[in-house]
Specification:
By secondary structure, the protein is mainly alpha-helical. The protein has a single domain, classed as MetI-like (MetI-like fold, Orthogonal Bundle), CATH 1.10.3720.10. A hairpin with a 2-residue loop joins strand 1 and strand 2. The longest helix has 32 residues.
C-alpha cells in the first residue's frame, strides 16, 4: 500500500548534479580535439589560426560588428521596455478600447515569427512606398535604413513580451498599495510611477534580464536585412577573402563572442538582482543566484526565492 502511494505521487524537483557540467564540458573538449587532429571525408583543412585571430587579433570588422550588436540590443531593449510598460498598463486599464488595443498588439507580435516581421517592416513597407527607411544622420554617425528597421522591429517585438512581464509584476503587488496612494491624493499615473512600479521591479528585473540576454543573440536574425552585426560579419569573412570557406573556425569564434557577451551580462544581471533582493521579505542568502548557479544551473538544496526565478520564452 505504501509503495502504491509513492507511485501515485510526482517526485519533487531535483537540481542537476554538479558532476554533469564538467563531464559535458570535457566531452565537448574531446570533440574539438578530435576534430582538430583528424581529417573529414571531404578533405576539410582546419586552420585554427583563423579562430585565434578572430578572438585575439583585434580584427576591426569583428569589433565593429560586436559594437553594432551591443548597440542594437540596448536600443531595442529600451524601446521594448517602454512599449511593454504602456501595453501592460493598457491591458490592466478599465477602458475596453485600451485593453483591446494592447491585446491585439501583444497577440500579433507574439504570434508571428520575428523573421517575418523583419522582412515585412523593411522590404514590405519599402516596396509599398509606405516608408523606405532613408539614411538617418545623427551627428557624425550615419544610420543606414536596415539598421533602423532592425531596431524598430526588434523593439516592438520585444515590447509584446515585456508587456506580459510588466503586467505580471504589477499584479504581484498588493492592490492596497494603489488604494493607499490614491487616498493620499496621488493620481493613477503618479501612484504607478512612484509606488507600484518600484516595488514590481524586483519581480520584473529577472525576466527582463533574460529578455536582454535573448536580445543579444536575436540580433543575428538581422542577417535577413544584411545588417553588419556580429553574425553577418563572420558570414562575410567566411564568404570571401583569405578566411573563406572556414565555417568551423569562424562560426565557432562567433559562438564564443556571443557566449562572452551573454556571460558578461549574466554577471551584471546577477549583481542587479542581488541589490534588489536585499531586505526583501523571504529573500535568502545573498538575495539572488550566484554566478555558478546562473551559468550552469547548479542550485543549492536550500529554499529559493521564487520571484527571482525566471525563464525564457
Amino acid at each position: 500500500m505504501f509503495q502504491r502511494d509513492l507511485r501515485g505521487t510526482r517526485p519533487p524537483f531535483t537540481a542537476p548534479r554538479p558532476a554533469l557540467v564538467p563531464v559535458g564540458a570535457s566531452l565537448l573538449l574531446v570533440l574539438f580535439v578530435l576534430a582538430g587532429c583528424g581529417q573529414s571525408q571531404g578533405g576539410y583543412q582546419y586552420n585554427w589560426g583563423i579562430l585565434w585571430d578572430s578572438l585575439f587579433g583585434l580584427n576591426q570588422r569583428i569589433l565593429a560588428g560586436l559594437f553594432l550588436t551591443v548597440v542594437i540590443s540596448i536600443i531595442s531593449q529600451v524601446i521594448g521596455v517602454i512599449l511593454g510598460v504602456f501595453a501592460a498598463i493598457g491591458r490592466l486599464s478599465r477602458h475596453r478600447s485600451l485593453r483591446s488595443i494592447a491585446g491585439v498588439y501583444i497577440w500579433i507580435f507574439r504570434g508571428t515569427p520575428l523573421l517575418v516581421q523583419l522582412a515585412f517592416v523593411f522590404y514590405g513597407l519599402g516596396v509599398a512606398g509606405i516608408y523606405r527607411w532613408p539614411e538617418l544622420t545623427v551627428g557624425p554617425l550615419t544610420v543606414i535604413g536596415a539598421v533602423q528597421a532592425g531596431i524598430f522591429t526588434l523593439g516592438i517585438n520585444e515590447g509584446a513580451y515585456m508587456a506580459e512581464i510588466v503586467r505580471a509584476g504589477i499584479i504581484s503587488i498588493d492592490p492596497g498599495q494603489m488604494e493607499a496612494a490614491k487616498s493620499l491624493g496621488m493620481t493613477y499615473g503618479k501612484a504607478m510611477r512612484r509606488i507600484v512600479l518600484p516595488q514590481a521591479a524586483r519581480v520584473i528585473v529577472p525576466p527582463l534580464g533574460n529578455e536582454f540576454n535573448n536580445m543579444l543573440k536575436t540580433t543575428s536574425l538581422l542577417v535577413i536585412l544584411a545588417v553588419p552585426e556580429l553574425f553577418v560579419t563572420f558570414e562575410q569573412l567566411n564568404g570571401s577573402g583569405p578566411t573563406s570557406f572556414h565555417p568551423i573556425e569562424l562560426f565557432l569564434a562567433a559562438a564564443i563572442w556571443y557566449l562572452l557577451l551573454t556571460t558578461i551580462w549574466g554577471l551584471i544581471q546577477g549583481y542587479i538582482e542581488r541589490r534588489l533582493a536585499k531586505g526583501a521579505p523571504g529573500a535568502t542568502g545573498g538575495g539572488g543566484p550566484s554566478f555558478r548557479e546562473r551559468m550552469f544551473g547548479l542550485r543549492s538544496s536550500g529554499p529559493q526565492d521564487v520571484s527571482l526565478v525566471s525563464g525564457g520564452r
